[in-house]
Amino acid sequence: MDKKKIETVTSRADAYLRQGRLRDALETLRALSEEGMQWEVSDKLNQIGKNYAYMLRYLTDGMPDPDRDKIYGALISDTYMASDTLSRRLLMRDCPTLYFNTLRNLGVRPRNMAAVIGDYLALAGRSNNIVEQITSGASPMDLRQVERAERDIFNYIWTVYPLGAADADALSAFLNDELMPMRTKLLAVNALALGALEYFDPARIIMLMNIYDNESSDIHISSVALVGLLLALFRFHERPLPDNVADRLMLLSDGKTWHSDLKTAFLELIRTRDTERINRTMREDIIPGMMKMRPDIIRKMEDASFDPENPEANPEWEEMLRKSGIADRIRDLSELQQEGADVFMSTFSHLKSFPFFNDMANWFMPFDVERVDVAEAGMPPVVTSMLEKLPILCDSDKYSFILSIGSVPESQRRMMLSQFESQNATQMEEMMRAEAGMHPVVRRTAVSAFLQNLYRFLFLFRRKGDFYNPFAEGVNLLKVNALSPYLNDAETVEVVAEFFFRCKYWDDALQAFLRLDSISDPRPEVFQKIGYCYQKQGNTDKAIEYYHQAEYFAPDSAWLLRRLGAAYRLKGDYAQAADYYKRLADKAPDDIDTTLTIGYVLMQAKDYQGALKQFFKAEFMDEAGIKAFRPLAWALFVSGDFDKSAAYYNKVMQDNPTANDYLNMGHVAMARAAYKEAVNYYKLSMNKSDGGVETLIRNIRNDADALRDAGVDDRTVSLVIDAMLYSI
User: Fold this and answer.
1) Which SS3 state, helix, strand or coil, does residue 561 take?
2) What pLDDT, in 10s, does the model give residues 170-218?
3) Omega of the bond prior to 162 within 30 degrees of 0, cis?
4) Which one, of 240, 274, 263, 413, lies nearest residue 346 by Cα?
């Protein structure tokens, strides 16, 4: 069956469920199920339909049913599950995505979780250090087999749906077994989290909660489980949570670190939005800028007085960077890095073409010095050990580093490694020492590491188009109703709101500020920013509403008066706009720009005499008078004083006139019946612009109302245009 049809029909059924039309959803899915000959799913849908019919009969017969809401919620959840099961089974036949390719390969030899883990254990053996046991005399082929078994565990956990009780028990036992290597456990939890983004599976969601809530879980494992849980809830936020999931989430919230961990994860999730902006800065500004400076750098290095080992003795470096503007951008990136932003995406994005990264599981494999790929790179133990503990690089970037260094000639490799060892050892030791024992810092580092692995995978993997990418739409947990009770900390919401506002994500910023307003005392700056977000969305009425709420607390705010003036101007209420700008002018009577703005608003209100007063005032305030010349010239023209208008346009002509200046001078000439002059000015306007004849004619026609008011009829305009065309 066609993939597009399957997705269209199941999406329609999901829409029915969101609208509360359970009967229509069941009928839609039943038709698709029967067409696809999925009789087991059809039986499930029929059973849901019967139970729904019984519930409706109780309702219409007026029989009391205290569990009605609970039963209805279960029916909705079961229908969603049936929809997912149906879609998955139909797509499994021939859908070419990696998920279904993997699923079909696993289906060749049907197994369960216990069998997959058993195969791994048979290869790995059991001891306090499984890797040590294998590596003592084991061949690379033996080690490769163990790594393939690890990938089998990853693939099985990623694609199993739904997660059955037996599989869940086997996975729990594996994760709680102290003899199992941490890297394999962490890989398994990564797979569990990724699978939660494929299909909504209540059992998988609950298991992620259990792993996070397990006090014996390693913090990296619990962090992956936490982020996987949050991303799954975000992806499926339009679905109602089944009662058992909602109950487990409520129990989870009683944990002593839940609220702080949720805050940490949320802030790290929204910081991912900075990644592409940083990547673009590196790609479009810093790297090209450094390439442009390359000849100057080479010349400096050839200068005998230039000492590259002592930058303090070479202020030319700093001066070159300052003049180019690169120094400011580097400083901004440094500050973002200190805040936790991912500044390494651009650096390592070009190092993901090694065959190692063709396998999905390797993007999430914890960095391990015992892996075959690392061992074969021939790195000194001090380097691999240092890299393993380095907190600022995610696992996939560490593998990129090792693979890239391992591929360069030996002489260059030694030089690079010596610099790496000498320059980074002390810094890394300090970072690791600072993080030791600090739960919030370690949690943030662990969450960030998983997000960086996931971000790189979803944007750089060769088959990235096969996957849902939450970062492409931007993660905002405030959209998840199930998390609303736990995101009522005003401090956290304000940080989130300010981030969205600073980065100009107006929809998300609005949602965050509205949430902040609902959970904190009224504050004028919050009302101002809500109003501004509405204004950026184009909702002028709501913007004015919130600006007025802010005005109650801060009636003399210059920023607010300016925004209210602009909002009323957009709305077309020029009298109100002028009133707010006049209040602004009263606060700053020497502000020429405000005076000019009042004139522009009065012009829009067709109060030409009032506008002229403002423009003359601006001319008087400005010693050079240049700012007021253009608006004065136009205001005089529309007021009918063509001679004075021409006089001011002549002043404008002395200061690099624009195409629009020549156009307006042509209008004045026509109004004065100086048609030859008008033709010449229109030609100058056309030559000054890049639009050509058609653009000029369109510009003249756009001013038809002003020309009519000036006494120039449409026929005269047409004749002058033709005269101009003949003269070209």
Assistant:
1) helix
2) 999 999 999 889 999 999 999 999 999 999 999 999 999 999 999 888 9
3) yes
4) 274
**Tokens standing for residue 348:** 């390592």
Question: Looking at residue 459, what is its pLDDT?
Answer: 94
Other beta carbons within 10 angstroms of residue 569's beta carbon come to 21
Nearest to 205 by CA among 467, 483, 488: 483
CA 313 to chain centre: 42
Tokens 């949430």 correspond to 515
The label of the residue with tokens 């960095």 reads 367
Is residue 333 within 8 A of residue 126, CB to CB? The reply is no
3-state secondary structure 280-338: HHHHHHHHHHHHHHHHHHHHHHHCCCCCCCCHHHCHHHHHHHHHHCHHHHHHHHHHHHH
Over the Cα atoms of the chain, what is R_g?
34
Question: Helices marked H in 461-539 — which ranges?
Answer: 470-473, 490-502, 506-519, 524-537
Asked whether the CA dihedral 557, 562, 568, 571 is positive or negative, the reply is negative
End-to-end CA distance of the chain: 64
**DSSP state for residue 268 in the 8-state scheme:** H
**In this structure, are residues 101 and 91 in contact, taking their beta carbons and an 8 Å threshold?**
no
C-alpha 707/C-alpha 713 separation (Å) is 7
74-79 CB contacts, 8 Å cutoff, 24+ apart: 74/242, 74/243, 75/22, 75/48, 75/51, 76/17, 76/22, 76/240, 77/202, 77/240, 77/242, 78/44, 78/48, 79/13, 79/17, 79/22, 79/25, 79/26, 79/29, 79/45, 79/48
Two tokens at 140? 């690379």
Q: Is 586 helix (H, G, I), strand (E, B) or coil?
A: helix
Contact at 8 Å (CB) between 551 and 568?
no
Please name the helix (run of DSSP H) or strand (run of DSSP E) that holds residue 379, with its range, or none: none
Distance of CA 696 to the CA centre of its chain: 42
Burial string for 376-392 (b: 16+ CB within 10 Å, else e) reads ebebeeebbebbbebbb
φ, ψ for residue 573 (rounded to 5)? -95, 80
Residue in the block written with tokens 């380097």: 383
Amino acid at 322: R
Read off the tokens for 402: 């090792």
Q: Taking CA 720 as the corner, what is the angle to CA 719 and CA 723, rounded to the nearest 5 degrees? A: 90
Range from 333-342, 537-546, 609-618 carrying the lowest mean pLDDT: 333-342
**What's the chain's average pLDDT?**
86
Compute the distance between CA of residue 82 and CA of residue 33 in angstroms, rounded to an integer. Answer: 10
Calpha distance 177→728 (Å, rounded): 88
**Dist. CA 115–CA 515, nearest whole Å:** 48
Place of tokens 């398994």: 188
Element (DSSP H or E) covering residue 713: none
Q: What is the pLDDT of residue 376?
A: 81
Q: Where are the beta strands (DSSP E) in 174-240?
A: none
Q: What is the model's pTM?
A: 0.81
What gap in Å lies between CA 79 and CA 70, rounded to an integer?
A: 14
- The CB density around residue 685, as the number of other CB atoms within 10 Å, is 25
Q: What distance in Å separates the CA atoms of residue 282 and residue 259, rounded to the nearest whole number?
A: 35
Mean pLDDT lowest among 43-52, 161-170, 410-419, 551-560: 410-419
Tokens of 331: 């400083």
**Contact between residue 59 and residue 52 where contact means Cβ atoms under 8 Å apart:** no
pLDDT confidence of residue 312: 47
- The H or E element that residue 701 is part of is helix 692-702
Given pLDDT bands bounded at 50, 70 and 90, which one contains residue 284?
Answer: low
Cis amide leading into 409 (omega within 30): no
Query: Are the C-beta atoms of residues 329 and 302 closer than 8 Å to each other?
Result: no
Cα–Cα distance for residue pair 502/509, rounded to 1 Å: 9
By C-alpha distance, which of 328, 330, 351, 320 is closest to 278? Answer: 330
